[in-house]
Write a structure and sequence with these properties.
The protein has strands at residues 2-4, 12-14, 16-17, 24-33, 36-43, 53-60, 65-66, 69-73, 83-91, 94-101, 120-125, 131-136, 141-147, 150-155, 163-167, 171-172. The chain is mainly beta and 208 residues long. The strands form 5 sheets. A 5-stranded mixed sheet has the order 9-10-11-12-16, with no helix packed on it. The chain has a 4-stranded antiparallel sheet with strand order 4-5-6-8, with no helix packed on it. The protein starts with a strand and ends in a 36-residue tail after the last strand.
């Protein structure tokens, strides 16, 4: 992490951290909430494995040295670690943040599995980091913005089926049952257009 001191010259100094101790494969998002810096990331302590877990780190913002601690990690190692967006949100009067996770490919069924945190938008309470599933049925929700209490998520869908969703608490957004896109080999089966991989209807299956 570097501190840019001058936005005209981009002079910068390095901020000391302990980030090298977390086996980070990719940084997914960073968010400043109440003078704390939250980082979502994919990782695996076994460098020989292709799969990765999903985690969140947190540290008090300090321009000289920042010591991060883990506040969350998943317990399933996936081939595709997706999502990772962090955004401050107040839910039922409690300060916290929303966190997006994805589920695609061979792991897509996790989006409908209530025992898995993948394919979900999760709310974390800042007081004790207790979490609840806020919504489910997501493929790869990488965009998240909140304005006047309205939550908008942009989601990488299946082929030709990217989505912009208004996120409502406790709703199910359908993936992998319903999607207006299709599998990425769809160009190979154009002569079978009636044989879609996904339902082309959300409301008819009680999805948002």
């Amino acid at each position: 992490i570097n501190l840019i001191k001058n936005l005209e010259t981009f002079d910068q100094t390095e901020v000391k951290t302990n980030l090298n101790s977390f086996y980070i494969k990719s940084v997914l998002d960073m968010s400043n909430i109440n003078d704390n810096l939250f980082i979502s990331y994919s990782f695996n302590e076994d460098i020989n494995k292709e799969c990765t877990y999903l985690g969140i780190l947190e540290a008090n913002i300090n321009y000289e040295e920042m010591i991060f601690k883990k506040i969350f990690t998943t317990d399933q190692c996936l081939e595709n670690t997706l999502g990772g967006r962090i955004h401050f949100y107040k839910h039922l009067g409690k300060d916290g943040f929303l966190f997006t996770t994805g589920a695609s490919g061979k792991e897509k069924d996790l989006a409908q599995d209530d025992n898995s945190l993948y394919g979900k938008i999760i709310f974390f309470n800042l007081e004790n980091y207790k979490k609840i599933i806020f919504s489910k049925g997501h493929r790869n929700p990488q965009g998240l913005t909140i304005n006047n209490g309205i939550i908008i998520s942009t989601e990488h869908g299946a082929y030709g089926g990217d989505e912009i969703n208004k996120i409502i608490f406790n709703k199910n957004y359908g993936f992998p049952v319903s999607s207006y896109g299709d599998q990425y080999n769809f160009h190979e089966i154009l002569d079978q257009r009636a044989d879609y991989s996904f339902k082309k209807n959300h409301k008819g299956y009680n999805f948002q």
